[in-house]
């Protein structure tokens, strides 16, 4: 290998490492499962539950905001659990939600914020941020 090839390979590996590390700092969006949710709560992880429906225009308006916040390195590793309003009625009831487009933030097992029908980026961000607060 030439010096140039070696340097380019090294730079590419370094760039990949930085990208991978950045992705590790961001949160993720996953389908709700009771076991995974409880595991995250027991670990004290910041969590947002997104009760959504595919037909809901408010949910559609929330989606790009939630996607952006979940990917935000500034907020850290907030996990968003999506609950299907139509197919997971038992879970919707367990969270005490009456409507789709409900967002519920938790820090560990403590609920820190809740909203229904909110589509304002700044207030949804505040909800996400509340999940990062340390509980007493």
Overview of this protein structure:
It is a single chain. The chain is an alpha/beta fold and 136 residues long. It contains five helices and five strands; from the N terminus they run αβαβαβαββα. Helix 3 packs across helix 5 (121-130). It starts with a helix and ends in a 6-residue tail after the last helix. Mean pLDDT is 85; it is low at 3-24.
Summarize the model shown:
The protein has a single domain (27-130), classed as Glutaredoxin. Helices cover 46% and strands 22% of the residues. The protein has helices at 3-25, 34-42, 57-71, 89-94, 121-130, and strands spanning 28-31, 46-52, 79-84, 102-107, 110-116.
Strand content: 15-25%
Alpha-carbon Rg, integer? 18 Å
Q: Helical content, roughly?
A: 40-55%
What number is the mean pLDDT? Answer: 85
**CATH class assignment:** Alpha Beta
CATH homologous superfamily placement: Glutaredoxin
What structural class is derived from the secondary structure elements? alpha/beta
**Counted beta strands:** 5
> What is the number of domains?
1
